[in-house]
Amino acid sequence: MYLLLKINNVTKLTSIIIAILFAISPKFFSYLEAGHLGLIQSWAFIPWVYWATINLITRKNVKSAFLLSMFLLLVYTSHILIFLTR
């Protein structure tokens, strides 16, 4: 989340605060208590998917496309419903 915010010109302090809030959000803790570890893992990959998408749009090279496809694969294999709805 921090890296995603930094490339969008958000200040360092704000990026750190938002990244911490994302990591300790109630949604994560409710998934953890319910035992939905696949959901937790897939939600953790969502900022990386956004980052890879922005990276692909700005750079337009094969490496960026490969990174995006790998992060989408990680979301798909961790929890297919998050992959289909996000």
Give a structural overview.
The protein is mainly α and 86 residues long. It has one domain (2-85). It is 85% helix and 0% strand. The protein contains six helices and no strands. It has helices at 2-7, 12-23, 26-34, 37-59, 62-78, 80-85. Helix 4 (37-59) packs antiparallel against helix 5. It is flat. It starts with a helix and ends with a helix. The mean pLDDT is 85.
Considering the chains and any ligands shown, give keywords for the structure.
86 residues, 85% helix, mainly alpha
Write a concise synopsis of the structure shown.
The chain is mainly alpha-helical and 86 residues long. The protein contains 6 helices and no strands.
* Principal-axes shape call: flat
Look at the structure and give the mean pLDDT.
Answer: 85
What is the gyration radius calculated from CA atoms? 14 Å
The total count of helices amounts to 6
- Largest sheet, if any? none
Q: How many domain modules?
A: 1
Helix content: over 70%
Low-pLDDT runs of 5+ residues are none
Structural class: mainly alpha
Calculate the terminal CA-CA distance, rounded to whole Å.
Answer: 16 Å
Please give the number of β-strands: 0
> Strand share of the residues?
under 5%
H/E element sequence? HHHHHH
